[in-house]
Design a protein that fits this description.
Shape: globular
Structural class: alpha/beta
CATH class: Alpha Beta
Low-confidence stretches: none
Helix content: 25-40%
Strand order of the largest sheet: 2-1-3-4-11-10-9-6-7
Number of helices: 8
CATH topology: Rossmann fold
Order of helices and strands: EHEHEHEHEEHEEEEEHHH
Mean pLDDT: 97
Distance between the termini: 8 Å
């Protein structure tokens, strides 16, 4: 199993996705197009692609000119029936790739927040093993409309489009299910000003919230990651 991972920022944690890929013995190749513009190609023999988050918007082509090519790349993997996973920014780029609209700054969410499965989500291969409602980590300000033909899998009180599927194994999740408690703790240490802007006093409230909600989010995130790897 060969998996291409696209990182969109200089610090990217693979978290629970990395755990599930390691469990499956996947061979991982990392791409950092923000640094060199290089992206995977289906012809290179990758069985799947994961696109993680970043601080840029899905429409920030002027500062990040690789974004249109990344959208085409994700669509190409999907057309070849390779498993595709976009998380946060990755889901926004995936929506763009298939005709959805990106809305910038309209849906800020941060912290372990509730997500609810739709009826379709409750029977979906990716999400059927997780609770109908669960806390999961969020860090975003943007949202998107569902692309034509997408199946809506999960919703939330602010960003209604929290997860969707296209075809057999092309998935976008707005929420950071890869973000284990260890990942969130590192984000809190590394980006204190950014996290405080998103949630005033976050550094002080973080330990209690991690204790209250983090363990369940970790379990849910790993279940989702394992389910996606099972679709590769």
């Amino acid at each position: 199993m060969r998996v291409a991972i696209v990182e969109n920022t200089w610090i990217t944690h693979h978290g629970q996705v990395g755990v599930a890929l390691h469990e499956a013995g996947a061979l991982v190749e990392i791409f950092r197009p923000w640094a060199d513009g290089r992206l995977p190609e289906v012809a290179q023999g990758h069985d799947a692609i994961v696109v993680f988050g970043g601080e840029q918007s899905a429409l920030d082509d002027a500062a990040h000119p690789y974004l249109p090519a990344l959208a085409r790349c994700m669509a190409g993997f999907s057309a070849a029936d390779r498993a595709v996973l976009g998380i946060c920014l990755g889901s926004q780029i995936l929506a763009r790739a298939f005709g959805g609209s990106n809305h910038l700054g309209t849906a800020p969410e941060f912290g372990w927040l509730p997500v609810d499965l739709t009826e379709a989500g409750r029977s979906d291969p990716l999400l059927s093993a997780v609770p109908q409602a669960f806390p999961i980590f969020q860090w975003h300000s943007d949202t998107f409309t569902l692309p034509p033909g997408a199946t809506h899998l999960a919703t939330g009180p602010v960003a209604q489009n929290q997860a969707f599927r296209l075809g057999r194994a092309t998935y976008g999740t707005q929420f950071h299910f890869e973000a284990s408690r260890a990942v969130v703790a590192d984000w809190t240490r590394t980006f204190p000003e950014a996290t405080d802007r998103m949630a005033t006093g976050w550094a002080q409230s973080h330990p209690d919230l991690a204790a209250q909600l983090g363990a369940q989010a970790d379990r849910t995130g790993l279940e989702i990651a394992r389910a996606w790897v099972g679709l590769i």
